[in-house]
Predict the structure.
Amino acid sequence: QVQLVESGGGLVQAGGSLRLSCVASGRTFRSYGMAWLRQAPGKEREFVGAISWSGRNTDYADSVKGRFTISRDNAKNTVYLQMNSLKPEDTAVYYCAAFEPPLGRDYAGPRSRYDYWGQGTQVTVSS
């Protein structure tokens, strides 16, 4: 079992920055790929980005490329989402999720399912 707890959300003006954190506890964090997803009101949950278990590989949705950066610190069991140049359309509840990499590969990318989820943290970007 892996427990995930997000933090760092809040209210920010357009053009500003926030850094979200997701701390994991329980089973071996470093063996899991990690993803960030978000859900805006009235919309489906969408993939934001992911990082492989080693941290060497990352993948991002086109809508956030060049603005968001995912990193991880396996010694601290933590994954981060640095969000810069925020836009009002980034307003959503942000979730971190853990996934077992396919066939043990050092994979980063969207998945059809995730093994563990955090509770979410609200990010609101005002115009």
User: Anything to note?
Assistant: The chain has a mean pLDDT of 95.
